[in-house]
Design brief:
The chain has 190 residues and is α+β, with helices and mostly antiparallel strands. It is built from 5 helices and 6 strands; from the N terminus they run H-H-E-H-E-E-E-E-E-H-H. Helix 2 crosses helix 4 and helix 4 packs antiparallel against helix 5. The longest helix has 16 residues. The chain is elongated. It starts with 7 loop residues before the first helix and ends in an 8-residue tail after the last helix.
Length: 190
Amino acid sequence: MTQRLIDLADAKAYLRVLDDDGDFDAEIERAIDAASAFLNVDDDGFGGLGFPIVAESWIVRDRGFTSDVLSLPFQRVTAVESVAYTDAQGVAQTMPAEDYLLTKRGRRFCLVPMPGKCWPGVGTAPDAVRITFTAGFANVEAVPDDIKAAARLLIGHFYENRLAVGDAAMSREIALGVDRLTARYRRICV
């Protein structure tokens, strides 16, 4: 489940809801959840800004030490927990952390073998290599203010457009505002 980028008090202040009874809290919380999910990647790693907003652990798998698995799918990678593989004899192994290095090439993070080291041979399983890593900002407090501002814009939109009708389509102004606030965080693919 996506972690909320904005808390209820912040959202109520942004929306200027002066409700002390909590009558609108459930609707505001749904808008917060929708906005947070809109900016975050889904469970398959797609959508949003293209990376987990708040730190999450992920696993990538491949048949070998290919560029597909060694070039991690997200920016904002903060740690590699393990590089595991199944060797040619079918035995599960874990590479020592001192045998590889997490490097950054532009906005992309990649694993490379340390000088004098090489990737080991692997078996024939389609998931013979498994890399576990963490990506995202350390916590909600570390999320930059411009991403939180985009979340507030979205909260306002989702709160004001609670009904699934034609008028609920995101306005050009909201979409443009969110885009401009978050543009510097998205990976440019070429």
